[in-house]
Each structure stands twice: as C-alpha cells, then as structure tokens.
TrEMBL record:
Keywords noted in UniProt: Kinase, Serine/threonine-protein kinase, Transferase
PANTHER family assigned: ANTI-SIGMA-F FACTOR RSBW-RELATED, SLR1861 PROTEIN
Domain Histidine kinase/HSP90-like ATPase: 19-130
The protein's name: Serine phosphatase RsbU, regulator of sigma subunit
Source organism: Reinekea blandensis MED297
Length: 134
C-alpha cells in the first residue's frame, strides 16, 4: 500500500530550487532516497516546461506516494488534453542534424520511469509515473 509523502502545487513562478528544497526535506526525514532527487527534478522540470510552454496550463499538482519498493509521482494539470504516452517517439538512430526538434524530454521521462499511466477526466490531465526504490 502506498503512503502519501508529499504534495504541492507548481505555478509558473515556482522554481526548481523550490521543488528541490521540498525533496531534500524528504531525504532528511528518510522518506526519499537521495539518489532519486535528481531524477524526480528532471522529470518534473520536463513536465512543468511542457505544461507552461505548450499546454496552456497554469497549475500542476504533484503528489508523491511511496511503498516499500516504488515511488509514485502523480501529476494533475489544467492544461489542454495531452497524452504524453501517445506522442510519436523520436528516432534515436537518425543523426542529430537530421532529427526533428523536440520530443527528447518526454523520451527521457519515459526512459527514467518504470511505468506510466495517463488519463484525462474532462477537466484535467492525470499522469502517474513510477520509479523503483531498489
């Protein structure tokens, strides 16, 4: 069973330092392994960037859940409907100079996480990502 260990909202004025400080508190109280902080920051940075630059959203709600062996990152945003799991994946075999711009950030998020789930409830996008704690 998963336990909620942190929740916060992100707005355009929120900095990565703000988020990092919250994650460091979780490390200090032994709720989050130090080695996952940079992974979570990279993932959230990409999701935040996409939401504010392309999705027209104004708010991202983040909830972190922890079980014995998994960290679950649940994100809910008010942007335009967008399923990042259905985007065309970049062809990494094509030389960089021939590749279309974009898509590598989401590719990185998918590569860094063990599982992903998306749904749109008619008002908000919901994305759940899991990372192994082992």
């Amino acid at each position: 069973m998963s336990e909620l260990i942190e929740e916060f909202e992100v707005f355009a004025s929120t900095t990565l330092d703000d988020i990092s400080a919250r994650l460091e508190v979780l490390v200090a109280i032994e709720q989050l392994p130090n080695g996952l902080v940079s992974d979570v920051l990279i993932i959230l940075d990409e999701l935040i960037s996409n939401l504010f630059k392309y999705g027209g959203g104004k708010r991202l709600e983040v909830k972190l859940y922890k079980s014995a062996d998994v960290l679950e990152v649940r994100c809910k945003d008010d942007g335009a409907p967008f399923n990042p799991l259905m985007t065309q994946r970049p062809d990494l075999e094509v030389p960089m100079e021939d590749r279309a711009i974009g898509g590598l950030g989401l590719e990185l998020v998918l590569a860094m996480t063990d599982s992903q789930n998306y749904h749109y409830d008619g008002n908000c996008n919901h994305l759940t990502l899991t990372l192994s704690l082992s």
